[in-house]
Amino acid sequence: MSDRLTPLQVLVAIVDSGGFARAAERLAMSPTMVSTHLARLESRLGTRLIHRSTRRFTLTAEGHMLVAEARALLHSLDAAEEAVRRGRGGPSGRVRIEAPGALGLRFIAPALPRFRAAYPHIVLDVNVSDRTGSERPQAMDLMVRVGLPLDGKSEVLRLGQTRFVQVASPEYLARRGVPGRPEDLLEHETVVYTTTDRPIGLWRFVRGEERRAMRLTGVATFNHGDAITSAVVAGLGIAQTLELLVAPELEAGALVQVLPDWNADPVDIQLLFAPDRLNRPAVRAVIDFLRSEVDWRG
User: Fold this and answer.
1) What is the pLDDT of residues 101-115, one digit of tens each?
2) Is residue 214 left, alpha or beta, with left meaning phi > 0 and alpha meaning psi from -120 to 50?
3) Which of 118, 171, 224, 293 has the maximal Cβ count within 10 Å?
């Protein structure tokens, strides 16, 4: 890399990695060298790009502008290199994906051997996280989301559809009875999905024009869909979850749907990405694979 390109890569790595130490690890540099490259870049431009403190950093207005331009430049360089490599066997490069934990484990991970066979020169960085939003969305090339409203800043493609269902084990229902309406859940043991940025379990119910919203504390809370499934199969209580995450358990009879006439409307599984990511053949290859080769029905 040239002396002018390296500081730009360092700046983007600091933002994408979330700090100087992680950027140093990602770039195989010392933290001192990372700070030196940034200081030289700021000196050459005559402006501060990052406000630093002992625990965090924030970009200045100039920093935000330069990061966007630097990211576009680095992506263009990647695209140019990929164009050359395509003559050697297809698209190549590294693609970063973020997906909710259970979706990543149940749908993306099992498909990776087929993806590897089709695109041997693409390396996937898959971050499975049950946060409601990425801490650094700009660091990701692609993000899988469920029912996320359009934010106006990302391109959105629909991967599939599912819906919310309420489920319990036959053993639990034999012991506690079957609820006939959403309000009956207040008398039941519930297993609730929460995260650090969404600590209160809110269950929504829709039936035609009827709407209900209930906050449930639950007898247990989890931040992962598969953990909820395991707990409910074991008889802990009733959970509201995505149908595609419990389809095998429902088919096998390990779980039973309750209040089945509620929440019949479909919920989209969406793929979000910045428009400039489509400039990279590797990203386009991953998008095509996720849309055509992964069965998102459960």
Assistant:
1) 899 999 999 999 999
2) beta
3) 224
